[in-house]
Amino acid sequence: MHEMSLVSSILDIANEELAKRQLTRLTRVVVHCGQISNVVADSLLLCFEVLTTGTPHQGAVLEVVNIPLSLRCRHCGQSFTGEGQESLWLPCPLCSAQCGYDIVQGKEFFIQQLEAE
Amino acid sequence: MEIPVIRNVLEANDKMAAQLRDIFATRGILALNLISSPGAGKTSLLERTLTDLAPEFRMAVIEGDLQTDNDARRVAASGAQAVQINTDGGCHLDGNLVMQALNAIDMDGLDILFIENVGNLVCPVEFDCGEDAKVALLSVTEGDDKPEKYPLLFNLAKAMVLNKVDLLPYVDFDMARAKQFSRMANADLEIFDLSCRSGEGLQAWYDWLRAQRAAKKRG
User: Fold this and answer.
1) Which residues, numbered 75 to 94 in chain A, qualify as contacts with chain B under a Cβ-Cβ cut-off of 8 Å?
2) What residues of chain A lie within 8 A of the CB of B185, using their CB?
3) DSSP helix/strand/coil, B196
4) Which of A21, A46, A92, B90 is 20 to 30 Å from B98 by CA-CA measure?
5) Which residue range(s) make up the domain with A65?
6) What span, in angstroms and rounded, lies between the C-alpha atoms of B61 and B51?
7) Contacts of residue A100 in chain B, CB cutoff 8 Å?
8) For residues B95 and B90, what is the distance between their CA atoms, to the nearest angstrom?
9) pLDDT of residue A1
10) Which residues neighbour B156 within 8 Å (Cβ) at sequence distance 6 or greater?
11) What is the DSSP letter of A72?
């Protein structure tokens, strides 16, 4: 349950970007969230509401876009789309090896876009 | 007004972690981030390690807990430096907290820094603390399916300690299963079966620490 600190970081970054442009009110934030980033979108939305209530950003919309998991097999070196965390120990669908994967994509968590006035 | 901006939400943490990594590299300090569920034995492992390796290494510990300084007092009894961080409900340590704690540590001649994270198998994995390696701890009084349920930690860890093996006759923990799934998530994972209580298996863990420390010293 680290969503509160994540939302707090989102708002720090947003406030910084708004200040650069002399904007004061955030209206929309789009974040991209990797499938196994251990971020719960519902908690994120709740924390966002809690932390913006009573601030100039109250009512701003947080949009969470999922980034699918992509794994590269440490045996055959090929990449494939994983289903979820269990893909980390399931056999490689391409060569059947079970020796672990490098996570190509699916752990990221970044702000893609802000809208403000 | 639309502002196209791609910024990593954890950028502030990653920046802090990079600074920590620089400090550790410059000083040749091996930094290990210990991650487990509450009660797996992180503090017990540190008590044994700090006591047994005291003649060889200068070591320090950063203790993360929601409340109390019980763990810092336990490990400080070994003579090692210990700094307690109370996260007041926070579920993980982050780069910023570790940097603050580091200010209270005398790093001159320090060989190994242990970061004992808050007991939790999920959130601490997400926050880089500038460590050289994450060490996952699992104890045989837990479920042997932890690596299946929380594979990310085992995928990212360099070593896994399987603690409390002296209790194996009394529990249904399947060592083979726990190891099998850990290795399927990470074939390179070093695994140490040990008991902090009986002392069995500790030597292999110490040898690994010596090797990691020597590698760090070489740079």
Assistant:
1) 85-86, 88-91
2) 88-89, 100
3) coil
4) A46
5) 3-116
6) 13
7) 155, 183-189
8) 13
9) 60
10) B125, B134, B186
11) E
User: pTM of this prediction?
Assistant: 0.90
Nearest residue to B152 (alpha-carbon basis) of B181, B122, B177, B179: B122
Question: Among all chains, which residue has been given the structure tokens 């209580």?
Answer: B197
**CA distances for A22 relative to A25, A77, B9, angstroms:** 10, 48, 22
Q: Do B187 and A99 touch (CB under 8 A)?
A: yes
- The yes or no reply on domain B11-211 and CATH 3.90.180.10 is no
Per-residue pLDDT of chain B (219 residues; tens, 9 = 90+): 898 889 999 999 999 999 999 999 999 999 999 999 999 999 999 999 999 999 999 999 999 999 999 999 999 999 999 999 998 878 899 999 999 999 999 999 999 999 999 999 998 998 999 999 999 999 999 999 999 999 999 999 999 999 999 999 999 999 999 999 999 999 999 999 999 999 999 999 999 999 999 999 988
Place of tokens 């719960």: A40
pLDDT tens sequence across A44-95 = 999 999 999 999 999 999 999 999 999 999 999 999 999 888 999 999 999 9
For chain B, the structural domain boundaries read 11-211
Residue A43 sits in a domain of what CATH number? Answer: 3.30.2320.80
* Interchain CB contacts (distance < 8 Å): A and B: 104
Q: How confident is the model over A4-15, as pLDDT tens digits?
A: 889 999 999 999
* Residue recorded with tokens 């926070």: B90
d(CA A42, CA B159): 33
Residues in A closer than 8 angstroms to B3, CB to CB, are 17-18, 21, 23, 113-116
Q: What is the ipTM of this complex?
A: 0.85
Report the number of distinct structural domains present in chain A.
1
How far is the alpha carbon of B182 from chain A, nearest alpha carbon, in Å?
Answer: 8
> Smallest CA–CA separation between B209 and chain A, in Å?
23
